[in-house]
Structure formats: C-alpha cells, structure tokens
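Both lines are given unchanged directly below:

***
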Amino acid sequence: MFYDHQQIEKKWQKYWEENQTYKTSDNTDKPKFYVLDMFPYPSGAGLHVGHPLGYIASDIYARYKRHQGFNVLHPVGYDSFGLPAEQYAIQTGQHPAITTEQNITRYEEQLRKIGFSFDWSREVRTSDASYYKWTQWIFIELFHSWYNKDTDKAEPILSLIKRFEEKGTEGLNANQNDELNFTAEEWKEASEIDKEDILLNYRLAYRAETTVNWCPALGTVLANDEVKDGKSERGGFPVFQKKMMQWSMRISAYSERLLQGLKTLDWPQPLKDSQEYWIGKSQGAQVRFNVDGHDEIVEVFTTRPDTIFGATFMVLAPENPLVETITTAEQKAEVDSYIEETSKKTERDRMADVKNVSGAFTGSYALNPFSGERMPIYISDYVLMGYGTGAVMAVPAHDERDHRFAKKFNLEIKKVVETEEDVQEASFDSKDSVCVNSDFLNGLNYNDAKALIISAIEKKGIGHGTTNYRQRDAIFSRQRYWGEPVPIYYKDGMPYTLPTSALPLELPEVEKYLPTEDGDPPLGNAKTFAWDESNQKVVDTNLIDEKTVFPLELSTMPGWAGSSWYFLRYMDPKNDEVFAKKELSDYWGQVDLYIGGSEHATGHLLYSRFWNMFLKDRGYINQDEPFQKLINQGMILGMSAFVYRIDGTNQYVSKNLAKEYTTQSIHVDISLLKGTSDELDTEAFKAWRPDYADAEFILEDGKYITGREVEKMSKSKYNVVNPDDICEEYGADGLRLYEMFLGPLEQSKPWNTQGLSGVYGFLKKFWNLYFDGDTFSVSDEEPTKAEYKVLHTLIKKVVYDIENFSFNTSVSSFMIAVNELQKIKCNKRNILEPLAVIISPYAPHICEELWNLLGHQDSIEFEKFPVLNEDYLVEDEILYPVSVNGRMKFKISLSAQLSPKEVEEIVLKDEKMLQILEGKTPTKIIVVPHRIVNIVI
C-alpha cells in the first residue's frame, strides 16, 4: 500500500490542533512530569534541521511519559526580546514587535509541521505585556529585599528598616556593597534621601557605578557572553570598558548556595564545572597595605597569605579608583595611555590572555606590613576590579603571572617556599613544601603557616581571614529599546518602584530606536513616559516638574530577564493575579527534564537558578532548584561547500586544480550544487549574486568540483538545510527518526540528506506490515511464541533506551523488529497494536493513522505503553554448536531446560558424534549451558 506521508501528516496535525490533544490538565491527582526545551529566540532565518534535535528528543520523552500515565507538561514559548529585531528596526524603521511577530509565525508554522506534542495553549512570549508585567513584579520584589547572612536567605527590606530603627547596623550580617556603620538614632535622624541611599547598599536589585562593556555602535551595554575578541557578537562592533550608573542584581549573595545546589542536580559534569569555575570560590585573607607618602590604603584579597614575605610589588586593576589618587605626575601620561588601551578589552578577554604581559608603574610604593619593604605599585590588565578588591600583592617566586610580570619589569623575585628549583628562572607554586625567608613562618607547612599569618594579620588589625567568590553581581540594564521597561521612577535623584497596581509599565512608542541626541537610551525619545505620582499613571514627559510628575528609568532589562523565570509561568500562563498560583507551582515543582545547549552554562542557567532561589526565599514557590535533570544536546553540523577564486581575478578553479594557484576559498550556497553531488551548477552560481555574474571557471573533466567541509550549520556559511524541505520529501516522521538515528543525543554529528532514504524505507516497511497489497489486513489470530519474542525484545530495548536517552539505538531496534516481523509475515493484532504504541513517540503521525485503521477512535497518545513479559524472552530451544578438538563440527537443537549432564549424554549419542568418535572415548567434555559443547578426543 502506498505510504502517503504528506496526506497522513496534514490530517493528524489538523486533528491534534482541533482536538487540543496535548492540552495539559491541571488535575493534581495524577503524577506529574515536566519536560522543557530551552527558550527559543525567534530569529528571522527560521529553523534549520539542527534546531529541532533537542526538541525531538524531549518530545519523544514527553510522549513516552504520557503513555506511562503521567500528567505531562510540555509547553512552548518564545524569548522574544532581543538585539536582532532592534537592529532591524534601527535599519528599516519597522517596529521590533512587527518583526518579532512575523518571526514567531514562521517558527510556529515550522514547529507544527514536525509534529511536536506541545501544549500550545500555554504559549508565552517575553515581549507580551501580560508576561513582562510579572518580570517587572519580580524586579520590584528584588528591589524590596535584602540578603540576611544569618538566616542565609533573602528577606523583605522592611525587616531591615525595622532593624535599623532598633539598633542601626549593630550585629548586622548582610550582603552589601560597602560596610556601613551607624546607630539607630543616626538612622532616625537621616533624611529620606539619605535613607534611600543607604538602602541601595543592601537591596538585591540596586543602582551603582559599574564597569561595563559599552558598544557605541549598538548604543548599549553588552553582557560578557555577547562580546568576542573585543567586539560585539552581533555586528562585530568595537566594545569598550566604561564606568556607568547601572542596575545590578546581587547574585553574589547566592554564590555559596549556587555552588552547593549543584550537588543535588543531575547535570552534565562539564556544565557543573563551568558554573563552579565561574562562581570561583577561594579562601584566604583580606589584607590592608599602607601607601608610602599617602593616606590611602590598598586592600588585597589573597589565597596565599603564607607567602606575604615574598610580596615584592603590587598590581592594581587599571580601573581601580586608587590609581588616579596615587599616580605621580611623572607617570600620569603612561598610566592614562595604558588605561585607554585596557578599556578596549573585555574582562573575559583579559582573563583569557595569559601570555601577554603589560603594565604601567604608578610611581608610588606600598609598604609590606611584615617585611617593612617598599613595594612598587603597578597597574596591569591581568588584575580585574570585579574579583576580590581590584588589587593583588604580587609574589613572583610562586605565581606564574607575577613571575612573568617581574621578569618583564625587572622586579625583585624572593623565594619564600622551599624548593631546589631556581625561582629566578621559573615560579614554583606548591602547597606541599615549607616556608623559608619568612621570619616567624619559617619551617611551617602550608596549613600551619596560613593559620598563623591570618592570626597575625588580625592581631595587627590590618585584615582578616575570609572566603571570596569570583562571581560578580549581574548588570541588569541595557541602553536599548526592545526590552522590558524597568518599573522605576526618580525623585530627588533616588529610585522608587512603581506600585504593582501600575504594572505592566508598557514599552512606549518612539519615533526612532537610537539613543537621543543627549546620549540617553532610546526610551528618551518617548513622548509619553513620565510618572504622575499623585494620579498613579504614566503621562507626557513634558509634564515632568519633579514635584508630582517624575522621570521614569530609560534603560530596559537585559535579554536574560524574561528567561530567568519562564518555566514558572508555564504552570499558570493566563493568571492575571499572580505569576503562578502556589498550588500549581507546588504541583509542577521542578522541571524534570530540561534539554538545551551548553552555551547557556554561565548565563541563563545561573540567572534562573538565582531567581528561583530568591522566589523560594520569599515564599512564592517551594522548590530550591528549577531544573532537576539537564541534557546538553550536540549540534547537527552542516556540510559546507567552497569555490576557489584565484587572487586578483574573477576566475574560479575547480578543487583538485586549486593547489596550482594562489586562491581564496569562498562559501557557496549548497543549493547551487547539482543534486547530492559536489559539482557546482556554474550557471546557477553566476545568477546567485551580481558580483559572480562574469565569473570564469577552470574545470576538471568538464566539471567544477567544490571543496566540502563539515562546519557549524549557519546561514552565514550557506550550509543550512530547511526542515520544511525534508518534511515535504520524507515526512516529519522521517525527519524525527533520522535526527535521532544520526548518533548519541549529546554528540555533534554531520547532516547528510542522502541518509534519509534508509529511514524512509523503514517507514514504508513498517506501514506495509499492516497491509496485504492495498488492503488493510490485520488478523485476530493468537501470535506465535516467535512473534511475541520479537515484540518483547523490542519493548525491553526501547524502554531501556528511552530512559537512558539512547534514542539512536531505539531506531536501530525498530528496524530490526520490523524486518523480523516482515520475514515471518506477521500481521497479528496482538503484535501490531503494541508495535504502533512503541514507535509512536518517535513517529507519531504514521502511528496515529495505523491506530485509527486498527479501529480505535481515540488518539494513540494516551494508550498504555506495552509492558514487558520476560517469559517470552526465555528460549525454548538452544542451538548448541558442538566443537571437537577446537573445531566446530555441527550444531544440535536441544531443550533449554536440559541440565549440562543431559546435554552431554544426548550429544554423545548423536549419530554425527558417533561417526566422529569412531568408537573412541572423549578425554574431556565441557558443556557451557545455553552456549556451546566442547569435546576433546
């Protein structure tokens, strides 16, 4: 019977949509299972075949769990704020909302074609005001919270104010920007502005001067992961370090909990390692050094206070505020020039560049509090303001970077850890040796020396032992239009939150999406964007009088804001009273399975854990962590094609002749190749772009052969394969099976369209098991033991594979089972019905159609998954190979129930064996039960 995949798939996609087959119930009586894909950003290019890989895997698992009787939440939505739509708006004037809507429509059309079992009724979009109302609400909650280190959680800011009223800062153990000291009386006497200023020191969402990645061309601040090699990832524009007043999130308060929480998660170890490294916990001492001839003090954090006698110079971060104060007139020009150079590098670039040594001398000296020696103070880009104190005591004998710096600037290198190695030539870093040249520390091992020096530092009153974290607070404002407005207005220069009744604070219309002429963010172009405090509403900006009408914050939230809590909104997406009803968030709890790329390790995955912990602290949800099990899917790689242009000409030489010329390789669209070959359609190439219209070709055997290379699938490399084309030719079920068949989910693998024919052939074979010619033919006859064995072997394998995410081996098992059933001409209902259920998570359309033809009115989706019966796997008979003197002579079929002694007796009496023995008696007989018989004569 002809397998018409196009007709079948359209029919069932229409059925699922009309019947809302995958609409999730909030029936809290059933056990739940929450399967989620990482939030997609709807780009203009649409999906290529690499994108659905993780979605197919999660969809298989979601369908399997439904078959097991779980109430499955498998939603979809869009992370729809983002720079691409805004850049397009700047170039064309088209509102980002229009571009985003068009992109989402395209994405949804493609996703529906692949047959995903999403609950579309729960779709959310971060750019919808009904959604970002709650993103703004969470921001307000963060603003009105502080972190109490004694209770180790976030608490309402009102409890901190109450504490200040009763005893000031006495006994306060809070996460803060600066350590403040005041009495209850001083607090009460402070003006409202001063009180607000003090509270900003403790709020979890606060405003402070921060060094940021500023991209003038994009007119915005960029996150570290949006910058590559000193340029913006989008557009490749130069990025500079700049100090600006910015909103920040106090994620640093959660550093220890974020570290400890990793132990409870079933995540890939490399991903856990990158979060651990990013958080960067280290234990050591905070030490204060006096600056010779100045009142200033340089404070450092060191993990090796035991080496303080070997500290021969100090290095400050170029952006450290002390630099301006302590730099001498003679050194000012050199220092200023160095600071200017450093501003062109991001922190990430500075951390990664371990080979290049650079710096500038400030002209000032610090005093070593133990040796009393003068230590020259330098600045260098290897010291970061965001880690520790923005200053290091340099111990060149025992730190590789300090050693390189000392050699470059000819500074003293003093050995203080015992070693036979020459520390003048290379640093020696060990915790297994003892202290030397270190006065009262001499002869002590690392642990004893560290404890004694910390005690001495504390006795001198110049510091204390402490734990430090590399992780900085997260910058939370962007100077761009297309993002969530920050629900803040300014009175007397101080930030105040809008009342929650005023939410959402909607994005205003603007005439242009660029910063204003005064350098304000694009929201500064809005005509209606001011807060009327008396009437509690947004009004025209020309009404601002700083008495009752005040300016609103002009920055918007960063791209990660909306994606930091979306998994919670899916639980209750239409609720206008709360972000999610508590009983529903208690029921759905953690995401049980989260699938997405590893590139989000230190961005989205950290921020969402932080917000989740905060909401738990404040009693809004019950779970500590958002995502219990996480899988990073690999990439599907594209097969790029190249032509070779001879330098300085418009001549293109075929691949195998290119070595005879000096050429430049250029990507060409794979659609310009002839069929599935490597041959270029030269006429199509000439018509592709105007600059190739006059192209001339040097051919080999009358053909132009392109170079091929496996690379990341991307629009810029012209190697993208559109899933729509695959669905058209091979069907969505073919695409789904092939993507799983390519290899293990976590690994990257190259795409090859030719490989689809094998999977498509399997689907046709599977379809025809249910037909006799063109007639649907399924028998109610009881299956044979052999038929049941094929079925239950498959059940056992597929259950194991799905539960271990080995989807590729399941597809192989389907092929084996269908081949075996075809060989024995099986058409029994008791085999073919469960077979359709087993294959349905992978190929839902064909299985729905067969289920329907089998006489069922309901969808196959909720049919119970077949249960394994091991009895069918027990062999009745064993085919024993009989080996004589190490050579196999014949095979004999015997009952599986026979003992080794009984097997031996039957074999010895067998006619073939009697001929071999010729009356001799075997010297040795070995029977391996159910495997082999070995006879030695």
Observations:
- The two ends are 58 Å apart (CA to CA).
- The chain has a mean pLDDT of 94.
- The first helix runs from residue 5 to 19.
- Residues 875 and 896 are 6 Å apart (CA to CA).
